[in-house]
Each structure stands twice: as structure tokens, then as C-alpha cells.
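Quick review question:
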């Protein structure tokens, strides 16, 4: 048995040199296993630090994860750092290519910033638990009504707790060399958050209920609703007096360059490489209403697609219909 183990250990360096497919699966397995191990370390640290679920736990997670890029042979070149030096709440949006995006997220993650993720992630063992402890917001992508409810609740919490949220508006992983059309959830979130009146100190805590059909806790719904006009009419522009009383929630686009030169899922290739991260200037949402969401989404898409093609060295095949 010892001889077999010795042969297996000696074979690994040879296979790493001779087989790109072996390298692909080895790195993927190592990445997942190492992240789960880091979560085991992070869970007690977060509980000791904050006593449970708290967005401040993202500091611990960020610190523990930042070295992983070196183990996978990856480097990040970041430009536009100054655009993240924005006070108050905001929504970060970025393109989504693979689970490796987590490394880029942790590379530049601002303080008091968490993310929105699919509900299935919470069941991913220790990784799911540490995501929950870090304040990540889980949504059910298969039930649009549930997702919209969570986003509405999150908009209120963003303002009450002065937090930032990272969203992948494509909605799913995409490695086709271009961006997928954006879903509008992130943009509704930014607009809804600014339409909430600035809360008093007594109402700044997160509320929980257990009246869902499954008995699961969820955020209490904010009192009141969005500004709406009559049916068939556009929403009224916000008065200047009301705008001065509100906290505006801008959108900050972050663009990852294409992974195509080092990571190819279908071809089973995972080499060393450099990822360019470009942080674009913030997009203001001041004075916007739900009727402006579509144009806000389209503007963000155009800016990010142009930056993606530029930093990836990819030629455009013409405008992509959004």
C-alpha cells in the first residue's frame, strides 16, 4: 500500500507537466477543497469576532482568501481604485465568468460590502455557512416574486445599515467572450434604496419574521412603497426638497477581463494567467425612479461591454442587442 501511495505522489508532478486535462481537474479540486478548509478556519473566527451573522465578517473572509490567487498561479492588475473611494451605500456590478470571480471580488472588496448570490450556495457545506455569516444575501432565481421581495427588503437594509452590495447582473456564469444581457435586479436595488427615506437611529436595525410558509426567517418588508404615478403615466420626477432628504445609491461597475487566455472550461485548460480588473467611474442614480431602470441598465451594459472588450483585447462584432 505504501508503494502505491509513493507511485501516486511521484505521478502527480509528471501529470502536471504532461496533461493539461489533469492540471485542470487538479486545480479545480484544490481550489474547492482549499476554500472549504479556509471556511473551517473562518467560521469560528467570525463567531468570536461578531457573535454570528454580520457584514463585518467579510473583513475576516477577505483577509483569508486573498492569498489563494498565488496558489493557482493567478495575478490581478487593478485600475481605477479611486472610484471605490465613495462614501455611503452603493451597488457594485461586475461580469461573471466562473467561480474564480470570487478571488477578484476579494481582491478589491470595499469595507461593509457583501454580495448577492443564488440560494443554492447556502447548502455548499462550510462555504455556504461562511457566506451566511458574512451577510451574503441569498435569492431564489427560480421564483421571481421571492427574488423581488428580497431585493426590496435589501434596498431598505442597505440604507439603514449603510452597506454596499456586489451583484452579478448577467445572472449566471458566462465564458462566451462577451457579456450577456443584464438582468434589472441590481438597478432596481439602487433606485429602490435611494427612494427610501433616511432612517432614524431607532429604525436602523434589521428586522426578522418567521411567517413564511416554510418557517424560514426573512427580512421584514419595508413600510410604504416606491413612488408611482397613475396607470399609464410615467413616475413623477422627485422634488428637489425630497432629493435633498434622501441618500443616493450610485452604481459602480467593475469589469473582469476575459479568462479565455488561461481558463477554458470546455477545453479543460487551467493555466497561470493575469486578470485585469477595471473599476469604472460611478453611475449616479440621483433623482431616478423605477421608470429609469431600463435606461440605467442599458447604459451600464454599454459601458461595461466596451471596457471588457478593451481590456480583453477582443474585437467587437457589432452592438449586442440588450
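Suggested answer, residue by residue:
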Amino acid at each position: 500500500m505504501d508503494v502505491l501511495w509513493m507511485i501516486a505522489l511521484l505521478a502527480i508532478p509528471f501529470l502536471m507537466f504532461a496533461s493539461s486535462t489533469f492540471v485542470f481537474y487538479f486545480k479545480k479540486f484544490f481550489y474547492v477543497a482549499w476554500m472549504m478548509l479556509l471556511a473551517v478556519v473562518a467560521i469560528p473566527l467570525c463567531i468570536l469576532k461578531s457573535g454570528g451573522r454580520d457584514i463585518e465578517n467579510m473583513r475576516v473572509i477577505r483577509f483569508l482568501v486573498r492569498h489563494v490567487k498565488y496558489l493557482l498561479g493567478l495575478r490581478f492588475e487593478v485600475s481605477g481604485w479611486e472610484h471605490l473611494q465613495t462614501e455611503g451605500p452603493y451597488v457594485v456590478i461586475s461580469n461573471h465568468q466562473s467561480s474564480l470571480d470570487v478571488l477578484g471580488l476579494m481582491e478589491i472588496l470595499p469595507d461593509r460590502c457583501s454580495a448577492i448570490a443564488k440560494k443554492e450556495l447556502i447548502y455548499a457545506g462550510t462555504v455556504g455557512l461562511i457566506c451566511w455569516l458574512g451577510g451574503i444575501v441569498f435569492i431564489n432565481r427560480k421564483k421571481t416574486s421571492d427574488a423581488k421581495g428580497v431585493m426590496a427588503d435589501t434596498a431598505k437594509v442597505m440604507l439603514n445599515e449603510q452597506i454596499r452590495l456586489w451583484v452579478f447582473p448577467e445572472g449566471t456564469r458566462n465564458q462566451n467572450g462577451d457579456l450577456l444581457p443584464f438582468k434589472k435586479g441590481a438597478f432596481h436595488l439602487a433606485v429602490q434604496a435611494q427612494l427610501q427615506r433616511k432612517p432614524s437611529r431607532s429604525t436602523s436595525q434589521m428586522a426578522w419574521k418567521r411567517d413564511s410558509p416554510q418557517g424560514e426567517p426573512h427580512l421584514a418588508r419595508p413600510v410604504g412603497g416606491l413612488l408611482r404615478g397613475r396607470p399609464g403615466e410615467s413616475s413623477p420626477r422627485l422634488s428637489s426638497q425630497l432629493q435633498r432628504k434622501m441618500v443616493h445609491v450610485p452604481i459602480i461597475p467593475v469589469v473582469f477581463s476575459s479568462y479565455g487566455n488561461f481558463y477554458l472550461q470546455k477545453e479543460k485548460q487551467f493555466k497561470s494567467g493575469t486578470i485585469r480588473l477595471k473599476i469604472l467611474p460611478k453611475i449616479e442614480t440621483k433623482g431616478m425612479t423605477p421608470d429609469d431602470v431600463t435606461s440605467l441598465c442599458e447604459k451600464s451594459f454599454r459601458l461595461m461591454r466596451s471596457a471588457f472588450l478593451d481590456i480583453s483585447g477582443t474585437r467587437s462584432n457589432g452592438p449586442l442587442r440588450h
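Why it works: The chain has ten helices and eleven strands. The chain has one domain: 15-197+247-312.
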